[in-house]
Design goal:
With 69 residues, the protein is mainly beta. It has no helices and seven strands. A four-stranded antiparallel β-sheet has the order 1-7-3-4, with no helix packed on it. Strand 3 and strand 4 form a beta hairpin.
Length: 69
């Protein structure tokens, strides 16, 4: 299957982001913060279509999610 891609911008307080598709799991997704790969479970989790980070990305920072369903 094709990869799905979502991009988000941090605002300094938001920790939850909505993916465009549900069905990805924490261990099957690649999440990047300003180009740096995050570690599943310790840096983020995914439930349904919600990506939740364990920290609030600073304002104007870039988040990217790549995942297969």
């Amino acid at each position: 299957p094709d990869w799905s891609y979502d991009a988000f911008t941090g605002n300094g307080s938001l920790t939850a982001f909505t993916l465009s598709s549900s069905g990805a799991t924490t261990n099957s997704a690649f999440i990047f913060y300003n180009g740096i790969a995050l570690k599943p479970s310790s840096d983020y989790s995914i439930s349904g279509a919600t990506l939740t980070l364990t920290f609030a990305p600073v304002a104007s920072s870039e988040l990217m999610a790549r995942y297969q369903l």
